[in-house]
Q: What sequence folds into this?
């Protein structure tokens, strides 16, 4: 395999094809438009389907339909567009259909701005549509990891019959870095299964539906979903620890682009003898609580935990849940497309020692 | 090698993003880790556009750079905005066709290149971006000139392949301009 220099958005599109996805439905929005721009050229080459829908609401419902027929499908948007997809996501999760969506986060709230942000964290991990459902949310910190997680997203969505979100910020989408694709050519389609609507001639009818008028049946359905989410939480958390955390005087928690900026700050501080480490969740949902807690427990006794985000503080809720009262919490964050610099992160870390 | 973090800035359409892409490709071809991070804010036509290219031997942590080691500026707004951010001992390449002001950085090497005229003499005024890239490559030695030429040839394919000779010529003219000027560009010796 040779490395190629690619924009994050284009690499995500190519990774979807390598994962076997040949159905895309979406609507343009900065800073993710290079995903559809890439796929509209590339999908016809592999016999795929590309539809530019009339809105994000239409896109997600096209995904609902396509996913119901058991094809690997993808939509991509950015923050305000993801908000419009909320209802559809709830239906898709309720019907246990696999699909992948990309959110290249921009600054909010409202129409906000087009610069990078991480302020859809709550939306991705807690919010979007109504009802007791969860997405699996993967947060890449580099273009290569965006590719790797895109491939994983299709695996997980099929294995658990659940929507998976690849959640990156505008910087990952716009940046070019060298990437290596693990496979050649378009990947395999979804495996034969017991639920896809493929035409019932010669077999029992299958029904995809999220309406349960019997409270007992709906209660059972919710319990079944919960058991699945618990299994995902047990088996599918992913994280990275950077720097020596054993006995460290401070732990920084950050994800995505922000984690890379923290790494630069840590590199500079380590050369000055500061004992600091980074905990980076790769799965934002399920959050790697166990690994996070083990990392925190290995710190020096009074070491604080600093959460750094490109938001006003959202993931810090999970960091607090993870510490469960065992640590002092500090926060550094900027919003609106302003990104804390390595120097600002380093200064904040020093101020807490 | 020390990490190289170069900021390349100009008006939209002056080709700094493309020059940065060629530089990133060349460094990658020489086995380096690279990142190419463009500014993508809302801009009016003729507004500023810039890109940060990081080149290093080890994986690049932050692609976002507040203190670049080198700066290439095509226009005055970019000089005014970014010249103060360059780290001490850094390298600043100025397009003197459009920028008539001095960066006022006695602690940096400053190279002035009349990029438009050099490009015109080499064949096309539109290749001023590759003149700048040539001057920068000559002065910094960050990648081999032959590698860059190979990447210019690889960038323009199909019907665009006809642009390769003029752009390579502009790049070579930029190399010469950079070499000549580099000899007079040591820190502390800058004329005001």
A:
């Amino acid at each position: 395999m040779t490395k190629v220099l690619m924009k994050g958005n284009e690499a995500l599109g190519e990774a979807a094809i390598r994962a076997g996805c040949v159905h895309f439905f979406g609507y343009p929005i900065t800073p993710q438009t290079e995903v559809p721009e890439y796929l509209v050229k590339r999908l016809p080459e592999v016999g795929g389907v590309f539809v530019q829908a009339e809105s994000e609401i239409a896109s997600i419902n096209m995904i609902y339909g396509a996913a119901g027929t058991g094809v690997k499908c993808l939509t991509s948007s950015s923050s305000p567009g993801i908000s419009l997809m909320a209802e559809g996501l709830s239906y898709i999760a309720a019907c246990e259909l696999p699909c992948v969506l990309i959110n290249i986060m921009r600054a909010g709230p409202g129409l906000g701005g087009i610069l990078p942000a991480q302020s859809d964290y709550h939306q991705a991990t807690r919010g979007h549509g109504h009802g007791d459902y969860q997405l699996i949310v993967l947060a890449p910190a580099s273009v290569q990891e965006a590719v790797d997680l895109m491939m994983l997203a299709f695996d997980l969505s099929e294995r658990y019959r659940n929507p998976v979100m690849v959640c990156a910020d505008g910087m990952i989408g716009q940046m070019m870095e060298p990437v290596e694709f693990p496979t050649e050519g378009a990947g395999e389609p979804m495996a034969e299964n017991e639920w896809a609507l493929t035409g019932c001639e010669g077999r029992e009818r299958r029904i995809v539906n999220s309406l349960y008028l019997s409270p007992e049946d709906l209660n059972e359905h919710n319990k079944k979903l919960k058991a699945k989410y618990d299994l995902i939480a047990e088996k599918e958390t992913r994280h990275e620890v950077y720097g020596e955390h054993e006995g460290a005087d401070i732990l920084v928690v950050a994800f995505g682009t922000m984690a890379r900026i923290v790494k630069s700050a840590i590199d500079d501080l380590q050369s000055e003898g500061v004992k600091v480490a980074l905990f980076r969740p790769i799965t934002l949902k399920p959050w790697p609580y166990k690994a996070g807690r083990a990392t925190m427990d290995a710190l020096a006794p009074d070491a604080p935990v600093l959460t750094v985000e490109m938001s006003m503080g959202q993931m810090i809720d999970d960091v607090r849940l993870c510490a469960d009262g065992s640590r002092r919490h500090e926060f550094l964050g900027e919003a609106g497309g302003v990104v804390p610099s390595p120097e600002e992160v380093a200064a904040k870390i020093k101020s807490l020692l | 090698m020390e990490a190289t973090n170069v900021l390349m800035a100009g008006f939209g359409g002056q080709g700094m993003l493309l020059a940065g892409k060629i530089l990133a490709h060349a460094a990658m071809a020489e086995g380096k880790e690279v990142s190419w991070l463009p500014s993508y804010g809302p801009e009016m036509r003729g507004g500023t556009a810039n890109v940060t290219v990081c080149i290093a031997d080890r994986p690049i942590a932050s692609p976002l750079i507040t203190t670049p080691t080198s700066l290439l500026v095509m226009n005055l707004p970019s000089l005014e905005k970014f010249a103060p951010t360059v780290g001490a001992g850094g390298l600043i390449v100025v397009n003197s066709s459009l920028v008539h002001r001095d960066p006022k950085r006695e602690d940096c090497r400053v190279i002035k290149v009349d990029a438009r005229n050099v490009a015109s003499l080499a064949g096309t005024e539109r290749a001023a971006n590759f003149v700048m890239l040539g001057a920068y490559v000559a002065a910094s030695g960050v990648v081999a000139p032959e590698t860059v030429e190979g990447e210019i040839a690889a960038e323009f394919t199909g019907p665009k392949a006809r642009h390769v000779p003029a752009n390579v010529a502009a790049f070579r003219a930029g190399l010469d301009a950079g070499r000549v000027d580099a000899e007079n560009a040591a820190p502390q010796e800058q004329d005001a």
Residues 310 and 339 of chain A are 6 Å apart (CA to CA). The radius of gyration of chain A is 21 Å.
